[in-house]
Design brief:
Structural class: alpha/beta
Helix content: 25-40%
Number of strands: 14
Oligomer: single chain
Number of helices: 9
Length: 344
């Protein structure tokens, strides 16, 4: 199978530091170009990463006939508009999470995909990491009995008002940035959609972005409870509790690239973990796996790891969390209708 020729939209730190180097190690990815609104910066990044072409505008990158697929790590408010432009130019698109600003945004991209026939997927890299694949297998097999609830947290401390995470109109705030992970991962492991959600959030008085969010997702089989914050000490955790045990993922979202990752399976026989088993996974990089999996979908014309149908459902839950925090009531995710933006 020949490699897919990729272009990179923008010079986001996650792309330069993590995703591009990882994709360059893949079997099916060839990074051939990078674009920035600053040509000098694009050239400097291209030299540093060994990328053959550098462009000083996104439109030049979109017009390059050599490029088959684009990775879009731009700020959240540019995910859908630039991905639609790419699709209309016949480019496949792997777009960073969250897929857009709200459900209506995601539905626009879904319509563009269906109209153009390209492959578009959301870059939730956890979908392909072996520790998550195994966790899903264990839950489906009944290893911890019937899944009843999940509990997670994700946070970091960042107090820079100039950072895009603190610019509301750019889709800033903790829920869109990191709260999307426990939502995605709980949906993935429950294998269901929450029927309703309840939430509370705290907004920064100056920027208006959410800095602390707590939510309950009410699934048919049980609950997921999570917290996310952008002014707390760095943390991430995710556990799944069943009638016959629990599974804890050691570092659920940012396992060390090239390092061993672990999950802990405890049968709950006592509080001292006498029934604990640990499974270890060989070194890997989830961004390498993601790039190859998406490239394979392009070559084979199959569904990418996280298709837009899943992205729309995830955005619907995020929207419902915003609505619930505002209304003080349980809110139902609305997938089939384009509701008004809720991060307001």
């Amino acid at each position: 199978m020949t490699k897919v020729r990729w272009g990179i939209l923008g010079a986001a730190r996650i792309a330069l530091d993590r995703v591009i180097p990882a994709m360059q190690l893949g079997q099916l990815c060839e990074i051939v170009a990078i674009a920035s609104r600053d040509l000098d910066r694009a050239r400097a990044d291209a030299r540093q990463l060994g990328i053959p072409k550098a462009y000083g505008s996104y439109d030049e990158l979109l017009a390059d006939p050599e490029i088959e697929a684009l990775y879009n790590p731009l700020p959240n408010h540019l995910h859908v508009p630039l991905s639609i432009l790419a699709a209309e130019r016949g480019k496949h698109v792997l777009c960073e999470k969250p897929i857009g600003l709200d459900t209506a945004d995601a539905l626009k991209l879904l319509a563009a995909r269906d109209r153009t026939g390209v492959v578009i997927g959301e870059a939730f890299m956890i979908q392909v990491h072996p520790q998550w694949v195994r966790t899903r297998e264990l839950v489906r097999s009944g290893r911890i009995g019937e899944l009843r609830f999940a509990m997670g947290a994700f946070g970091y401390y960042k107090d820079d008002p100039a950072n895009i995470r603190h610019i509301r109109e750019f889709g800033g705030g903790g829920l869109l940035d990191i709260g999307c992970y426990p939502i995605k991962s709980s949906r993935m492991i429950f294998g269901e959609e929450p029927a309703r959600v309840s939430a509370r959030l705290v907004r920064d008085p100056a920027s208006g972005v959410d800095t602390l969010t707590s939510a309950i997702l009410d699934y048919p089989s049980g609950h997921c409870i999570f917290n996310c914050g952008t002014r707390v000490a760095g943390n991430q955790s995710m556990q799944f509790f069943g009638t016959a045990g629990r599974i804890e993922i050691e570092v659920p979202y940012n396992p060390r690239p090239g390092g061993t990752s672990r999950i802990r399976i405890d049968d709950g026989r006592d509080p001292f973990s006498s029934g604990l088993a640990i499974e270890e996974f060989p070194p890997c990089d989830q961004y390498t796996l993601q790039g190859d999996a998406f490239s394979r979908a392009v070559r084979e014309g199959t569904t990418p790891p996280v298709p837009l149908e899943d992205s729309v459902k995830n955005m619907a839950v995020i929207d419902a969390v915003f609505r619930a925090a505002r209304s003080g009531r349980w809110e139902t995710p609305q997938v089939g209708t384009a509701v008004a933006p809720q991060n307001v």
